[in-house]
Amino acid sequence: MSKRRVVVTGLGHVAPVGNDVATGWANLLSGKSGIGRITRFETSDMACQIAGEVRDFDITQYISAKEARRMDLFIHYGIAAGLQAVADAGLDDVPNLDKTRVGVNIGSGIGGLPLIENTDGELRAGGPRKIGPFFIPGSLINLISGHVSIIKGYQGPTYGIVSACTTGAHSIGDAGRMIQYGDADVMVAGGAEGAISRLGIGGFASMKALSTRNDDPATASRPWDKGRDGFVMGEGAGVVVLEEYEHAKKRGARIYAELVGFGMSSDAHHITAPNAEGPARGVTNALRDAGMNADEVDYVNAHGTSTPLGDANETNALKLAFGDHARKLVVNSTKSMTGHLLGGAGGVEAVYSILALHHQISPPTINLFEQDVEGGCDLDYVANTAREMPIKVAISNSFGFGGTNGTLIFKRV
């Protein structure tokens, strides 16, 4: 069976660098950090007091205030990014769109942690009667997809993938396969997260995973830099509209890029500590899926979290996957500006990879003050300044706890 071609026709974005695609992309190219002191709750007793919070976000632009009160923040972000992507693709203007052939797959790595945390407090203070009837549906991960499908009337495959920090990439790749093999003609796909809470920040801090550069938040996320001391948590959502090529072409849709490859793998090594072989295998699996050679890739939007072990490990994985061509790659970490969106990371970073292709420019990796060459971080990371360059093929890497890996490959059309 020959696979159908899959293209990207819509983009949606909510993140610390901006609440829409245009704002976020402009801030990335200018090297503007979205990371600051946490404003949402008291942090004076916490080791980590910084995060990439979404600011000035108004969910009532997308749904009513009454509906919004019934769901956790990660669902707000996913709905907003999903509806942005649908609008950008112009799906509402398609006459006689067969909505039984349109599906949604917007996942999350953690889901409704703040709502769970707050509801537990209410339970302890006032007993079971304080638990609201919307607590369960307000915190379930697949409810992003559920709400988007209900709002738009989409009746195709609707579900939500959960695979830690690889969620967004897995959601987009799996949605692409739904189209390739004929289960849908259009999929709205990506990832969302909203886990900036005392429990979320405290939990990652207890693992010694977070940066504690509390006195200088804007420079705290510094992938591949000698001074990196952990990742900074971010929040938000990134969603794309994927569409079968002939379906998109027939309606005259704008095509940003083609999704040509998707690769997955497992480290089978450790729940949190990475190894290089697993991520490298995910990349080579994606290249095989795309029918491409390693030397055809120009740009990598890396997982690049700013952890001492993870950054060096990803560099080694790229060397394993690309061989000598790794030295010719442009490797960028937009987490230097957004922080790590966990289950939303693969979604927003897919959006950034597609925009890099579309506009032929790589965003910078900011805060790269002294590259950790001695520590093995010795590739071209687009330090501190955006770079115009020819990009025909871009990949986006995502890796998650449990040793799960995902790689997406996008190509200019």
Task: Kindly describe this structure.
GO terms for molecular function: 3-oxoacyl-[acyl-carrier-protein] synthase activity. This is 3-oxoacyl-[acyl-carrier-protein] synthase 2. Pathway: Lipid metabolism; fatty acid biosynthesis. Its EC number is 2.3.1.179. With 413 residues, the chain is α/β, with parallel strands linked by helices. Helix content is 32%, strand content 18%. Strand 9, helix 10 and strand 10 form a beta-alpha-beta unit. The chain is globular and about 65 Å long. It starts with 5 loop residues before the first strand and ends with a strand.
Summarize the structure.
Helix content is 32%, strand content 18%. The protein is α/β, with parallel strands linked by helices and 413 residues long.
- At the first level of CATH, what is the class? Alpha Beta
- Based on the coordinates given, report the CATH architecture: 3-Layer(aba) Sandwich
Low-confidence stretches: none
- Spell out the helices and strands N to C: EHEEHHEHHEHEHEHEHEHEHHEEEE
| Major beta-sheet overview | 10 strands, mixed
Tally of DSSP β-strands: 14
**CATH topology grouping:** Peroxisomal Thiolase, Chain A, domain 1
Number of helices: 12
Structural class: alpha/beta
Q: Proportion of β residues? A: 15-25%
Q: Give the % helix.
A: 25-40%
Q: Average pLDDT across residues? A: 97
Count of individual domains: 1
Distance between the termini: 23 Å
Strands of the biggest beta sheet: in what spatial order?
5-4-6-7-1-8-14-13-9-10
Radius of gyration: 20 Å
CATH superfamily, by name, is Thiolase/Chalcone synthase
